[in-house]
Amino acid sequence: MSQADPHKTPNADKPDAPCSQNLPRWLKRRVPKGNANHFTARLIEELELETVCEHARCPNRMECYADRTATFLILGNVCTRNCAFCGVPHGRPVPPDLDEPRRIAEAASRLGLRHVVITCVTRDDLPDGGADQFRQCVESVREKTDATIEVLPSDLGGNSDALDLILDAKPDVFNHNVETVPRLYREVRGPKPRYEWTLAMFRRARERQPQVKTKSGLMLGLGETDEEIVQVMRDLHASGCQMLTIGQYLRPSSEQAEVQRYVPPEEFERWKDLALEIGFESVASGPLVRSSYHAREMLGTEEA
């Protein structure tokens, strides 16, 4: 696949619609009125930044943009992996942008963010998986704002030293999505990610930086069973994960894995109740919930 345009402009007017014409009513969203989302989109364009909101075709993008918030995507817009659920382009990425941390901090400041979420494409081509870029972003945002910071890195190729580099930057939240149940890992996430390493990342985070909150996300609708969902929640909690998001998988385009089932809202409520019963400190569960959706509220701070 050819290299995607590294300065692709977010389109504030593009509908936030997954690849389906037959969505159940609870997954259909109204477009926010007014043009408040244009401010965020134009700022992202001006600073030549990427957002996962755009590349993952998040159904909440226009709502978040209208609220002047976004989840920053660092290390380019091309991933070295080709996960079956993800709409981010796969190919050969360009070298990390050394000025990116400064621009992330500038965007956070100008948007007035009180909670900054930073994620990335997977960079198996880099020895540290992009960990040092995360470190620099955390430091730059701290120099420019008083915002709390949430990082959502890749699995870093199983590199524990790279994980320590991110943890020692002391973000307020360390987030890494388990995504799905172990049985579906190879089918959904490919041959490289390992369920056991995901759990080990949370154990390491709790041991090395216990003041850093830990968080993970799980998608439903890919063919998992109830028993497998329960086991994943128990495994995550036992490994030190404190916060959990549970949402519906929506197919970004016809090139990604098909949705096996649309989970009704009442079932998501049941999963939330069970997760809290298991012991998670904070749980967001619903059809349109994503790992960074209303992230500040999940952290337990007052609403922005």
Structure description:
The chain has helices spanning 36-46, 52-55, 61-66, 100-111, 131-144, 160-167, 185-189, 195-208, 226-238, 265-278, 295-299, and strands at 50-51, 71-74, 115-120, 148-152, 173-175, 213-220, 243-248, 282-285. The relative contact order is 0.13. Helix 4 runs parallel beside helix 5, helix 5 packs parallel to helix 6 (160-167) and helix 6 (160-167) packs across helix 8. Strand 3 (115-120), helix 5 (131-144) and strand 4 form a beta-alpha-beta unit. The protein has an 8-stranded mixed beta sheet with strand order 1-2-3-4-5-6-7-8. The longest helix has 14 residues, at 131-144. It is an alpha/beta fold and 304 residues long. The protein has one domain: Alpha-Beta Barrel (TIM Barrel). The chain contains 11 helices and 8 strands. 35% of the residues lie in helices and 12% in strands.
Task: Compose a concise summary of this entry.
The protein is α/β, with parallel strands linked by helices. The chain contains eleven helices and eight strands.
Question: Helix and strand layout, with pairings?
Answer:
Layout: H1 36-46, E1 50-51, H2 52-55, H3 61-66, E2 71-74, H4 100-111, E3 115-120, H5 131-144, E4 148-152, H6 160-167, E5 173-175, H7 185-189, H8 195-208, E6 213-220, H9 226-238, E7 243-248, H10 265-278, E8 282-285, H11 295-299
Parallel strand pairs: 2-3, 3-4, 4-5, 5-6, 6-7, 7-8
Antiparallel strand pairs: 1-2
